[in-house]
Amino acid sequence: MDFRVADLSLAPLGRKEITLAEHEMPGLMAMRARYGDEQPLAGARIAGSLHMTVQTAVLIETLVALGAEVRWASCNIFSTQDPAAAAIVVGDGTPDAPNGVPVFAWKGETLEEYWDCTREVLDWPGDEQPNMILDDGGDATLLVHLAVEAMKTGVRPEATDDDSDEVKVLKALINKTLDEGVDWIAIANSIQGVTEETTTGVHRLYEMLRNESLLFPAINVNDSVTKSKFDNRYGTRHSLIDGLNRATDVLIGGKVAVVCGYGDVGKGCAEALRGQGARVIVTEVDPICALQAAMDGFQVTTLEDALAEGDIYVTATGCKDVITADQMSRMRPQAVVSNIGHFDNEIDVTGLVRRPDVTRVNIKPQVDQWVFDAGTDDERSIILLSEGRLMNLGNATGHPSFVMSNSFTNQVLAQIELYTKHEDYPLGVYTLPKHLDELVARLHLEALGVRLSELTESQAAYLGVQVEGPFKTDEYRY
Ligand code: NAI
């Protein structure tokens, strides 16, 4: 078996963590119980690109229990939990004779290694090709699309000065694979669909649909209510604080925290920071979200205005250049600057690197102090987490199992839908039907001791719904 992880001797620890997580992931365990005999994913060859954590390990083993073959990479250079990765490779074998799933992921990859790992999950042994993608942020999907475009147009991707380091490395990788004769068109043709985990990846899919470049159908898992209104919000409410504490252990109470973006993730961040006793300032571009933040009791102003006060910054926008290098140079002493959005371009780290008046002092892995005008009377510094990459997975271990069980149960249902009913899904981007969204929630109620009320026939008729649901129209926003 081919694989690349940090250290297979970490597998016993990973296995113990996975076993504990299974108890906290009732939705995934219900999927195994419900579909284990039926094997709906038999024949599915899933290329997975999603943070290689303990929770993802339970997802991977659920997909395998339903019949799928899987290859896996992480979707971020810092997010892999090495014990989990090792346990998934070892499976029920031993470190000397692993028999699990090929994983290509470790904490602290270089950009070159990152894209090589993404390529590995699309590169199946022998004549086989992957026939499904499970993506988080869309990098596996992007690699296939850019490589196919290069093959179809005959124009090799060329790095430009405007490209980020990440894009330059991706373009170099595509050229390398084309030199090796990889037939990306055959790979794309064999892919029946992709299920996408996060807001940013979903944006990319809709954009490809709009410009008619999308090559295969997609299910937008993010916009299942039981994903974005839970993982993005309540998951973040937990893991943001975990990331801040493990990185800096700075007291949050009494500080001024600035949250950029008041979407699902921003709402979780703001609530968590207020819960710790911080005074929270929100920045927004959308008047509806700005009004929501104000009604929730947060001060809403621009980042420029917040600079004089902010001690802790968190970007949660999915946008770019939200905090510039110049703004970082004007922050309060030792302000903590972090991003929890999917990509690192929310904070202009490239701009920081390019400034002549700045020096980087590494404090520990994924924590750097950036000092401006060192040695002068004007010396000041900020602390940047995870080089601007998503800090809850870079500095901590991401969302806890119970909330990820909701997200990943949607992923499993989406994989089954697209793989078993692909003729029902012509090229397009879809969300799961409401009854499946409600099913995911239902599977998580018992563990929390929730007792659900039931409509009578006459009440259901009065509301115009079925007794067993769905209870809301697709337009309802929760
Ligand atoms: P969303 O679309 O619900 O919210 C983003 C908000 O940011 C919007 O309200 C938008 O108006 C605002 N915004 C955009 N540009 C802005 C700017 N320049 N200044 C201030 N506000 C701005 O998206 P969601 O679901 O909250 O996700 C945000 C990011 O977090 C995405 O990149 C997503 O992929 C990622 N994500 C990360 C997770 C993690 O565990 N770290 C979990 C889930 C999502």
UniProtKB/TrEMBL annotation:
Catalytic activity: S-adenosyl-L-homocysteine + H2O = L-homocysteine + adenosine
Keyword Acetylation set for record: no
Subcellular location(s) per record: Cytoplasm
Entry GO MF terms: adenosylhomocysteinase activity
Occurrences of domain S-adenosyl-L-homocysteine hydrolase NAD binding (ranges): 232-398
A single cellular component GO annotation: cytosol
Gene3D superfamilies xrefs: Adenosylhomocysteinase-like (3.40.50.1480), NAD(P)-binding Rossmann-like Domain (3.40.50.720)
Entry EC no(s): 3.13.2.1
Cofactor or coenzyme needed: NAD(+)
Chain residues that bind substrate: 53, 136, 197, 227, 231
UniProt cofactor note: Binds 1 NAD(+) per subunit.
EC category: hydrolase
Pathway annotation from the record: Amino-acid biosynthesis; L-homocysteine biosynthesis; L-homocysteine from S-adenosyl-L-homocysteine: step 1/1
UniProt: NAD(+) binding residues: 198-200, 232, 261-268, 284, 340-342, 392, 399
GO biological process terms, semicolon-separated: L-homocysteine biosynthetic process; one-carbon metabolic process; S-adenosylmethionine cycle
Keywords assigned by UniProt, alphabetized: Cytoplasm, Hydrolase, NAD, One-carbon metabolism
Taxonomic superkingdom: Bacteria
InterPro entries: Adenosylhomocyst_ase-like_sf (IPR042172), Adenosylhomocysteinase-like (IPR000043), Ado_hCys_hydrolase_NAD-bd (IPR015878), NAD(P)-bd_dom_sf (IPR036291), S-Ado-L-homoCys_hydrolase_CS (IPR020082)
Keyword Manganese: no
PANTHER family per the UniProt record, alphabetical: ADENOSYLHOMOCYSTEINASE (PTHR23420:SF0)
Family per record: Belongs to the adenosylhomocysteinase family.
Function: May play a key role in the regulation of the intracellular concentration of adenosylhomocysteine.
Name under which the protein is recorded: Adenosylhomocysteinase
